[in-house]
Amino acid sequence: MERKAFLLLFLGYISFALVGAVLLLLPISRTGPLGFTDAFFTSTSALCVTGLIVRDTPVFFTLFGKAVILVLIQLGGIGYMTVAGILLHRLRKSLILPEMVAHSFPELKPGFALSFARRVIVYTFTIEFFGSILLFFSFLKYFDPSLAFKHAIFQSVSAFCNAGFSTFSDSLVSFRGDIWVNLIMIFLIVCGGLGFFAVNEIRDFASSKLRSFKILNRKSEKIQGSESSGKVFRFSTHTKGVIVWTLSLIIGGFIVILLLENNRAFASFTGLEKVLASLFQSVTPRTCGFNTVDFASLAPATLMFIMLLMYIGGSPGGTAGGVKTNTFALVFLWIFHYLKGYKNVYLFKRRIPGETVGKSLIIVFLSLLLILTSIFLIFALDKSVLNSHNPVDIVFEVFSAFGTVGLSTGSRFIPYISLSADFIVPSKWIIIILMIVGKVGVLSIATYIVEKSRVEIGYPEDRYIVG
What we know:
Layout: H1 2-25, H2 36-47, H3 57-60, H4 63-78, H5 80-90, H6 97-104, H7 110-139, H8 145-160, H9 179-194, H10 196-216, H11 221-228, H12 237-261, H13 271-283, H14 300-312, H15 325-339, E1 345-347, E2 350-352, H16 354-381, H17 383-388, H18 391-402, H19 425-440, H20 442-449
Antiparallel strand pairs: 1-2
Helix pairs in contact: 1-2, 1-4, 1-6, 2-4, 2-19, 4-5, 4-8, 5-6, 5-7, 6-7, 7-8, 7-9, 8-9, 9-13, 10-12, 12-13, 12-14, 14-18, 15-16, 16-18, 16-19, 18-19
C-alpha cells in the first residue's frame, strides 16, 4: 500500500508538471518562443516551489501564464495530494488516499492525515491572505492600488510556499531598504518553512494559553476545579527541535553573512540595509529563493555558506525543501553522542528512536551522492557553461535545485534569469530531476526502490578495519 501510494504521488507530480508545461506552451501564456524543455523546466520549478527560471517571469509570461505558474506554486506548496486527497475522499473513490496524503506529511499517522490536511489548507490560505493584505499596503507606496494588489497576492503565495518566483525582474532587490516588505516576506517564508506539524502545535499552544487566561479570570468554583485538573500543554520533541534549529540557523546565518559581506558587497549599503540584507539572505536560502542583493556580487565564501543553508533547507512537513533542519541536526547529534560513548541519541530529555537516526544518515548520504553525481555529469557534459561560468556558480545552482530554493548567481548572457538558462538541454534535465527529487524526498524514492525487509542469515561476526 505504501509503495503504491508513493508511486501515485510521484507520478502525480510529473503529470501536473507536464500539464503545466503544456499550458505554458500555449500562445496565450507567453510573449515569445518557448521550447518544451524550458516550459517543463518552468512548470517543474513552480510545482516543486523552487524558483529557478529560464525566462524572465514578469516580462516573458502573460497574465494567463503568471496565473498558471501561481496555481502550480500553490499546488506544490500545500502538496497536490493534500487537495486531491480531501476532494476524492469525500467521493470515497479509494482507500489508498489517506496513505497518499500521509506521504506529504510523514510525521502523521494515515488515520489522521485527512483531518490534518484540512487544517493545512485553512492555515495556508489564512496566512497567505493576511500576507497579501500587509504587502498590499506596503506596495501602495510604489504602485497604484490595482498593480499593488496583483504584486501582493503573487509575492505572498510565492513566499509562503517558499517558491521564489516573483513579479519583479530583480526579485526584491529594489526593496532591500524597505523594512516592512522585508519583515513581512521573512515572516511568510519562515511560516512556510516551519512545517505544518510544528505550526499546528504552536496554534494548539496558543489556544491552551488563551483558555488558561480565560479560566484564571473566572471566579466560579466549578471553573476553578476544572482548571486544576486540566492538562498542561507540552510541545513535542519534533516541534522543539524545529524552533531551536530554525532560530539558530537564522541568527547564525545573519551573523556570518554580515561579517563576510559587511565591507564587500554590502559596503555601499546603509546600516539598516546591511542588517536587512544579512537577515533576509539568512532566511531565504531555507528555502525560498527571493533575494534582495545580487548573488553574483557575493564572495565565494558567502556562496559556500549559503549552499550549506540551501542543503539544510526548512523543516519537515512544510513547503520548504532540503534535507530538513531536524535531519541535519540529528546527524550531528548522533556524531556527538557516539564520540561521547553513548549508544543512543537524546534530545530535550527524550531518546530518539534508532530507526529515525538511521533514516537521517541515509538521507544525508544519498542526497550528497545525488548532488555530487549531478555536478560531475554537468561538468562532464556541459563544456560551454564551464567556459563561461565559475565552477562555484555551477555548484551553487545544483545545490539550489536540490534544496528547491531558486537562488542563482544568474545568467551571463540574459539579465534577470537563472544560470540554468545557460545550460545545454541535458544539463537542464539534470536540474529538473534534482528539483523533483528535492521536492519528493530522497528517502521516499529510496524506500520505493529497495525491496521489503528480508530475513537475515546468521553469519558469524568478523573484524573489518575502518578509519
